[in-house]
Design a protein that fits this description.
By secondary structure, the protein is mainly beta. The chain has 2 helices and 36 strands.
């Protein structure tokens, strides 16, 4: 540093007390320097002889010590070494000619400023001071990311007079020398380490002062911009959500608010201020903190994307003064987003008993690896075991079908064997092995169909016949029954043929099933079916039944078998 005695130590092999060193401009070559010019360098001794040369006991490691005396100015110099060498002049004197300083021993940097540490805050104006000797109004600093070694290698720049990394003193008097000068660095939008490199009005390349990277070699300030570092966190619906916010100089007095997502103005707006308590808003304190991380418990979050808004209080630091972090207006530092994955609320599903059952579930960032589990409607997801095996086939749990989307996934059961009310439980985690993993209620499932009848209905020949049936989702306006001999049972479409009736006339262009013509007096015959009693013909909906009615002596197309969910809900 300027104003101090400067001592250099050189390390090498076979160094002697008779060795010398001298200095050269940092851009010069050691061999061939003119040592007479060194008298202008700011040192009391510009051609010192080693004051000592010691070894640690091996010939491989010697240290020679040189005293340059008091330093009067700053600068960067190349250190040139003469190993007790009498060169081409052979005048009997060692190290008295520039050509004899053949070895480059390193670089010497003399600092005018002394390094200090400062702390600023995201979103707040940042001011610093540099301390040293003979500081001028023409001095400059550059501010950049990286380590201390960046000083001397970061070029100053200005873009359209709007963006720059160069700053000048705001309180220095032109022509005067100062022991400290202040710089206004503006407002930083991101947290992290910055390094402030100083140029003491130097012109190393004779092309103007403080316009080359080499002139900013002095590290003046190690600057920390306090606050969070933005990141994207993920949580699952139905599971307590915790986030870990990384950052710089975080503390126990910091606060977090979870706000509706807004890409343009994520924090500090009216939406955030009125977002409400707990996970949807409010001001939360960290559960754990270190200077680099702060952990927060958000509770159970609704699905969607949210902005994380932070306030780095700085209560463990006196520079600058702390922030209260008491109101949403204080939580202006973006800390990233949290995405809560899962299904939307208020969804209802329906199927028909003894038929294939397909569920389309809507949500946010759903995946094809997600699974569902069917439980009794009266149960709770995550605590109630599933329905009896065989109620849904091939099993009571099902992974999403291929080809789904983040906002909608389909789940296909081959057969819902029993009518009833059920609950769909959703698992969006990586492990869905036990019913306790299916934590999220995706909504009720109503399987339309009959409850098994424990008694028979009796009617009298020649009189009006009526009977009732019980089940789920039944509707007298569009449901249909078919009477067939008890011995044949249900589960398919039956044709009763009285006399010479050919069922083939009902199916002139069959595409899947075929009906053979023939005469069956007073007999019943099952029509060919695709599955679960459904018959498919060209031009006929595959959810409808085709049968022959003997009273009307004609083929009848039954109403479409639609579940009546509104009737079932409630």
């Amino acid at each position: 540093y300027m104003g101090e005695n400067c001592t250099l130590r050189a390390r090498g092999k076979f160094l002697l007390k008779t060795d010398f060193l001298t200095l050269a401009l940092v851009t010069a070559e050691c061999s061939g320097i003119n040592i007479a010019n060194n008298a202008s360098f700011p040192f009391a001794h510009t051609l010192p002889q080693a004051s000592s040369a010691t070894s640690n006991g091996t010939i491989e490691d010697f240290v020679a010590t040189f005293d340059l005396g008091m330093v009067q100015a700053d600068g960067r110099f190349k250190v040139c070494y003469c190993a007790s060498y009498d060169g081409i002049d052979l005048d009997g004197h060692i190290c008295n000619n520039g050509a004899e300083f053949t070895q480059e021993a390193g670089t010497l940097e003399i600092f005018r400023v002394r390094q200090v540490s400062y702390e600023c805050v995201i979103g707040y104006s940042c001011s610093i001071k540099a301390f040293g000797l003979n500081l001028k109004s023409t001095d400059r600093v550059v501010v950049d990311l990286g380590g201390a070694e960046i000083c001397g290698s970061v070029a100053p720049f200005t873009v359209d007079n709007a963006s720059t990394n160069v700053f000048f003193p705001i309180d220095a008097v032109p022509g005067d020398s100062h022991s400290s000068v202040s710089f206004q660095l503006g407002i930083f939008s991101t947290a992290g380490k910055r390094f402030v490199c100083y140029c003491a009005s130097q012109d190393a390349n004779s092309n103007g002062a403080c316009n080359d990277d080499i002139e900013y070699y002095q590290e003046a300030v190690s600057l920390t911009v306090r606050g969070p570092v933005s990141k994207v966190s993920g949580c699952l619906k139905g599971v307590n959500c915790s986030v870990v916010v990384p950052g710089f100089q975080l503390s126990t007095g910091d606060k977090l608010q979870v706000c509706p997502y807004n890409a343009t103005h994520p924090c500090g707006g009216e939406l955030c201020a009125t977002a409400g308590p707990e996970a949807k808003g409010g001001i939360l304190s960290p559960s754990e903190t270190t200077p680099e991380t702060a952990s927060f418990d958000l509770g159970m979050m609704p699905v969607g994307s949210y902005s994380l808004c932070y306030c780095a209080s700085g209560r463990n630091s006196s520079s600058p003064s702390s922030i209260a972090c008491d109101t949403p207006d204080d939580l202006t530092m973006p800390a990233g987003t949290v995405e809560v994955r899962g299904v939307f609320d208020d969804q209802v599903y329906s199927c028909i008993a003894a038929s294939a059952c397909s569920l389309s579930i809507r949500g946010y960032k759903l995946r094809s690896s997600d699974q569902i589990l069917i439980t009794p409607l009266v149960g709770q997801c995550g605590t109630t075991p599933p329905v009896t095996a065989g109620t849904f086939r091939p099993r009571v749990s099902m992974q999403a079908s291929l080809g789904g989307f983040p906002d909608s996934q389909s789940f296909e059961f081959a057969n819902a064997t029993a009518a009833g009310r059920f609950r769909v439980c959703y698992c969006a985690s990586l492990v869905c092995e036990n019913y306790t993993d299916f934590l999220v209620n995706a909504g009720p499932l109503f399987v339309k169909g009959l409850i098994d009848r424990p008694r028979e209905a009796t009617c009298w020949l020649g009189q009006e016949c009526s009977f009732g049936v019980e089940g789920y989702g039944l509707n007298e306006a569009n449901d249909t029954v078919l009477l067939a001999p008890k011995a044949l049972g249900c589960g398919g479409s039956y044709v009763q043929i009285d006399g010479d009736r050919s069922p083939g006339v009902a199916n002139p262009s069959a595409t899947v099933a075929s009906v053979h013509t023939g005469t069956f007096n007073g007999t019943y015959r099952r029509l060919p079916t695709l599955s679960e009693g459904r018959v498919q013909f060209s031009g006929i909906d595959n959810g409808q039944l085709l049968y022959y009615n003997t009273y009307w002596s004609r083929w009848i197309l039954g109403p479409r078998k639609d579940p009546d969910v509104p009737e079932e809900v409630g």
